[in-house]
Task: inverse folding
């Protein structure tokens, strides 16, 4: 699987891409693979504050429900509403079309402190 | 995690090579899914799927009084079984709770073959040995067999290409000892999916050969290997109990809506007095089906409230791939344990509306 080099990752299996002060957040290919067929995605509304390390939503598969944690802090500016009617997109394109939320980040340095693609892949390799 | 290494079936490498996702299932390293749970589920409903269930345990009971021992330790009427017939049954404690739920196969008057849950097999064996006042030989036979389940409407056609035994003459819950894919096999028309199909018991050293033969024979029928994830959703739609969920040591077969496997008039058996008393006094709770009405999935262990009061718990809950609804089984007070009751299931601290419904959720055509 391709883990984009320009993204940063967390040990809770979220990814972040940063453009200016807008961070796009999703879950990793590995995360959706662990969950299996996804049936519900619960996301915060624009205006909600997301905090680093705190749950901001959940992803539910046939087998299990899993929290999604804020990789960075900031205010939600957009949620991917297409996932409400098409949660299976998270299984198909987790690093692209099936992003979860866009956040205006409080401090871009947080982004740089997250795992690189190489470090994340090492981490999931060791985990499994 | 314990320090004990996970147990492996002879097909472990086959699963890994096929890209299965493996999980620790009761101490066994088992495939939970291959192509995807929903895809595998639908393949079994519409075509044919193949499961490795070699983790399941087997116990063999032999001796002139084998029937008496099996009858004494199980709830169903063993005396009614003919040679080559199987029955679903309960292995109970004196207090009426389940040691395990099992399949009893009658090989001959003096020979019985029990298929039991993987994680219960040692406990079952000790329980049966403890009740063996009939001088029977009780053998822990889990290492002698691998079990493959071919399930789905096309299972008969696929399996028939691999044996000379006329499979269509084997009735549901009957079995035949014969040759399958060129090796000795016990071929039972049983399953845990709600579909037609066969559970085939072979020697462990033959398991890979038989698996590959079935996959090859089923290719044109669209056969897919299936994992324990699909097995769980398939059995739930068909309202088949899972030990540790619908049934357990603190639950009786009457409560589990399994009165049909309890024959109180067959003579003495372990647990009979407790069940008789329970029936006299009346049940206080019973297993009931539900469908979610609000958005969410009532999952295993979630609390149920009725009119704001704690009323029971979910034993198994999941999206139903066949029905495209969120379904589940739960224990409810007996006066609420019928279809049409409005209940709420506490999902992540939020009560969500659900309604009790008739079961099974799914029944195949013609059964």
Result:
């Amino acid at each position: 699987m391709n883990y984009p080099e320009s993204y940063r990752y967390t040990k809770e299996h979220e990814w972040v891409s940063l453009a200016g002060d807008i961070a796009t957040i999703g879950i990793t290919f590995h995360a959706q693979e662990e969950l299996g067929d996804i049936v519900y995605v619960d996301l915060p509304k624009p205006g909600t504050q997301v905090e680093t390390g705190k749950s901001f939503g959940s992803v539910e598969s046939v087998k299990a429900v899993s929290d999604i944690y804020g990789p960075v802090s900031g205010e939600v500016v957009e949620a991917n509403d297409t996932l409400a009617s098409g949660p299976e997109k998270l299984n198909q394109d987790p690093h692209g079309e099936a992003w979860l939320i866009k956040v205006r980040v409080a401090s871009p340095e947080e982004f740089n402190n997250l795992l690189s693609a190489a470090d994340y892949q090492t981490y999931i390799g060791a985990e499994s | 995690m314990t320090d004990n290494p996970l147990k492996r079936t002879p097909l472990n490498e086959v699963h890994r090579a096929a890209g299965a996702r493996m999980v620790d299932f009761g101490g066994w390293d088992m495939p939970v899914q291959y192509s995807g749970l929903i895809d595998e589920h639908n393949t079994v409903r519409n075509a044919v799927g193949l499961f490795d269930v070699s983790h399941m345990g087997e116990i063999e009971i032999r001796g002139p009084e084998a029937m008496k021992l099996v009858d004494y330790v199980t709830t169903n009427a063993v005396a009614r079984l003919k040679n080559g017939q199987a029955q679903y049954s309960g292995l109970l404690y004196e207090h009426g709770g389940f040691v395990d739920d099992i399949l009893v196969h009658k090989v001959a008057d003096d020979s019985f073959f029990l298929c039991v849950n993987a994680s219960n097999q040692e406990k079952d064996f000790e329980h049966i040995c403890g009740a063996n006042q009939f001088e029977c030989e009780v053998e822990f036979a889990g290492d002698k067999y691998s079990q493959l389940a071919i399930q789905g409407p096309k299972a008969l056609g696929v399996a028939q290409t691999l044996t000379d035994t006329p499979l269509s003459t084997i009735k549901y819950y009957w079995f035949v000892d014969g040759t399958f894919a060129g090796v000795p096999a016990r071929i039972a028309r049983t399953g845990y999916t709600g579909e037609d199909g066969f559970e085939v018991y072979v020697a462990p050293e033959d398991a890979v050969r038989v698996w590959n033969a079935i996959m090859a024979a089923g290719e044109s029928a669209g056969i897919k290997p299936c994992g324990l994830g699909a097995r769980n959703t398939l059995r739930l739609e068909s309202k088949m109990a899972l030990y540790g969920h619908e049934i357990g040591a603190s639950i009786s077969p009457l409560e589990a809506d399994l009165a049909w496997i309890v024959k109180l008039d067959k003579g003495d058996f372990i647990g009979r007095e407790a069940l008789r008393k329970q029936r006299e006094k009346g049940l206080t709770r019973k297993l009931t089906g539900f469908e979610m009405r609000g958005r969410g999935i009532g999952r295993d262990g979630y609390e149920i409230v009725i009119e704001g009061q704690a009323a029971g718990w979910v034993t198994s809950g999941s999206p139903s791939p066949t029905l495209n609804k969120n379904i589940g089984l739960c224990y409810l007070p007996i006066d609420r344990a019928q279809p049409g009751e409005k209940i709420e299931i506490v999902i992540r601290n939020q009560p969500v509306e659900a309604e009790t419904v008739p079961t099974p959720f799914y029944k195949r055509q013609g059964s």
